[in-house]
Specification:
Elements lengths: L3 H13 L14 H17 L5 E5 L9 E7 L4 E6 L6 E4 L1 E4 L3 E4 L5 H7 L14 E7 L5 E6 L5 E6 L4 H15 L3 E7 L2 E8 L4 E6 L5 E7 L3 E4 L18 E2 L2 E2 L2 E7 L2 E5 L5 E2 L1 E2 L9 E5 L7 H11 L1 E2 L9 E3 L13 E9 L5 E7 L2 E12 L2 E9 L5 H19 L3 E8 L2 E8 L6 E4 L15 E2 L2 E2 L1
Helix pairs in contact: 1-2, 5-6
Length: 461
C-alpha cells in the first residue's frame, strides 16, 4: 500500500533541512517528480473505473450519520456526483494536488458535498463536512482508497463500484425509503429486548434497550440495509458508558439487514430474526399539521414557553403596561417583533421536514426529524437536525426556546377526539402532560393555511 501523506511530508522535510543542497535525489527519484508521478497514478486510478467510486461522507462527530455519494471521475478534471440526498446528477470539477499530502479537492460548486461543507452564516463551520480530502493508503487490489477529511479529520474510504454509480445510489435510496421515519418491531439483540426507530434525515438509529433511556447511534444506509458507524474507538463521551458504539448486551450491533420480499420490506436482526418495519398514520416526514400555541388551545407548559419568548406585561397595578417577563424575541439584533402563536410541523411543500414559525408575517423554519416508537405508532419522537440559513441567523432568540422545548419534551402521543361531527386532534408530551397543542389533522404538502382547520370543543379556527 502506498502512503502519500508520508511521501509529501518527507519531501517537505528534505527541502527544509539545512543540507538542502547535499546529496539530493536525482532523476525520477526527485521528490517533486515522484509526487507528480503518484498524482498521475491516482488520477488514472480514479478515471479508470467507468462505473465510478462510492464514498460514505462522515461530517463532524458523526452527528449526521453517513451520506452515500458516488462519483464518476473523468480526465481533465470533470466529475459527476450522485447523492442519496439529491434527485439530480451534479456536474462539477475536481483536482489532485500536493500540499501537506496529496489531496483530492472538489473545487467548484457541488451540492452533494456542499450541503455538509459550506459555511452558512452563524454556523461558520457549516455542518462540519468536507469537500477536500487527503489521500491515504491504496489497497493492494486497488479497490479501496483511504481518505481523510481535511476539515473533519475523519477517516473515509473511496470504494471501487462494480455497478454503475447511478444504479448503486438508486438501490441505496430504495433501502433508505423502506425504513425512513419508521420503527422496527421489538426484537432481541445480545440477550436484551430492543426497540428501534430510524431517523432518516439525521441518519441516527434510536435504540431503547429494556427500560433504559433511548440513545442515538450514527448510521448510514447501504444496498444491504442499515450500517452502524462504529470506529475502533468510542465516537463520543455520551456513548462511553455503553462501551463500544452499538454495544447491546453481549453483542456489538454493526448492521440491520433490510430485505425486499415481494413488494414489501422487512428487517433482519444480527441473529437472522425477522423484524417487521412499522409505519405510522401520523407521519410528519410525509405530511404536515397546523398547531396552535394560543391560550386555551395549548397546555400551561406551552404557554410558559411562548410567554418567555414574547414576554408578558403587568395587566394592572402600579406597573401596568410594564414588562413582568422580558421576552427572548427582543434580543434578536434586527427583528424584535413577537412570535405568532401558530406553527406548521412536518413535511414542507419543498420536500424537507421542519417546524415553521411565523414572525411579522414571515415564516421561519428549522429542520426536525421524526420517527414512531416500536409497536406504538401513535407515539412520535422528535429530534433536531440543524438550521443553517438566514431564518436562524436573524431570529435565533425568537425560535430557539420553542424548538428546544419541542425536542426536550419528546416523545408525543397523537390523540383524536370525535366531537360534534369533527375530529379534534391533539399532540401531547408523554413525559409532561401540560405540554400539549391543539392541531389539525395531517395534510399532504401543497395545502394552504386556510385549508388546515383546527377544531377544539366544537370551535373551528
Amino acid at each position: 500500500m502506498r502512503r502519500y501523506f508520508a511521501w509529501a511530508l518527507g519531501a517537505m522535510a528534505l527541502f527544509s533541512s539545512c543540507k538542502m543542497y547535499d546529496n539530493l535525489p536525482e532523476g525520477d527519484d526527485k521528490p517533486a517528480l515522484y509526487l507528480t508521478k503518484e498524482m498521475g497514478k491516482l488520477t488514472d486510478l480514479l478515471t479508470g473505473n467507468a462505473n465510478g467510486w462510492r464514498l460514505v461522507l462522515l461530517p463532524g462527530s458523526y452527528q449526521y450519520g453517513g451520506i452515500n455519494i458516488a462519483f464518476k471521475f473523468h480526465k481533465g478534471g470533470a466529475v459527476e456526483s450522485y447523492s442519496e440526498d439529491l434527485d439530480e446528477v451534479i456536474h462539477s470539477s475536481y483536482r489532485i494536488y500536493n500540499t501537506a499530502g496529496i489531496r483530492l479537492t472538489f473545487d467548484t460548486r457541488n451540492p452533494a458535498l456542499g450541503r455538509y461543507a459550506e459555511p452558512r452564516n452563524t454556523l461558520l463551520q457549516g455542518l462540519e463536512g468536507d469537500f477536500e480530502f487527503t489521500f491515504g493508503d491504496v489497497s493492494a487490489d486497488q479497490d479501496t482508497i483511504q481518505l481523510t477529511g481535511v476539515y473533519s479529520r475523519n477517516k473515509m474510504m473511496l470504494v471501487r463500484l462494480k455497478e454503475d454509480a447511478e444504479s448503486y445510489i438508486h438501490k441505496v435510496k430504495d433501502i433508505r425509503n423502506a425504513v425512513y421515519g419508521k420503527a422496527l418491531a421489538t426484537t432481541t439483540i445480545g440477550g436484551q429486548e430492543v426497540k428501534m426507530s430510524v431517523f432518516g434525515l439525521i441518519r441516527q438509529l434510536q435504540v431503547k434497550v429494556g427500560s433504559a433511556e433511548p440513545r442515538l447511534i450514527p448510521i448510514n444506509f447501504s444496498t444491504e440495509g442499515i450500517e452502524v458507524i462504529g470506529a475502533d474507538d468510542l465516537i463520543d463521551d455520551s456513548d462511553a458508558s455503553q462501551g463500544k458504539v452499538g454495544q447491546i448486551g453481549t453483542e456489538i450491533l454493526r448492521q440491520i439487514k433490510v430485505v425486499k420480499e415481494g413488494s414489501t420490506y422487512h428487517a433482519l436482526s444480527p441473529s437472522g430474526q425477522k423484524i417487521a418495519i412499522q409505519s405510522t398514520d401520523y407521519d410528519f416526514t410525509k405530511s404536515k399539521i397546523r398547531a396552535f400555541f394560543y391560550d386555551g388551545w395549548s397546555g400551561d407548559a406551552v404557554r410558559d414557553v411562548i410567554n418567555r419568548i414574547n414576554g408578558v406585561k403587568y395587566q394592572s397595578g402600579p406597573n401596568a403596561g410594564q414588562d413582568s417577563i422580558v421576552g427572548d424575541a427582543v434580543n434578536d439584533a434586527y427583528y424584535t417583533s413577537p412570535l405568532d402563536e401558530i406553527a406548521y410541523i412536518g413535511r414542507t411543500d419543498g420536500g424537507d421536514h421542519k417546524i415553521s414559525l411565523r414572525r411579522g408575517g414571515n415564516w421561519l423554519s428549522y429542520y426536525l426529524d421524526f420517527a414512531p416508537a416500536s409497536d406504538d405508532p401513535s407515539t412520535i419522537y422528535i429530534r433536531k437536525f440543524v438550521q443553517n440559513g438566514d431564518d436562524w441567523r436573524y431570529n435565533r432568540n425568537a425560535m430557539q426556546r420553542m424548538i428546544n422545548a419541542l425536542a426536550d419534551n419528546s416523545p408525543y402521543k397523537i390523540s383524536v377526539n370525535h366531537y360534534n361531527g369533527n375530529d379534534e386532534y391533539r399532540i401531547t408530551s408523554v413525559a409532561n402532560t401540560k405540554f400539549w397543542m391543539s392541531m389539525s389533522k395531517f395534510y399532504d404538502p401543497g395545502h394552504s393555511i386556510d385549508e388546515m382547520p383546527v377544531y377544539l370543543d366544537g370551535s373551528k379556527y
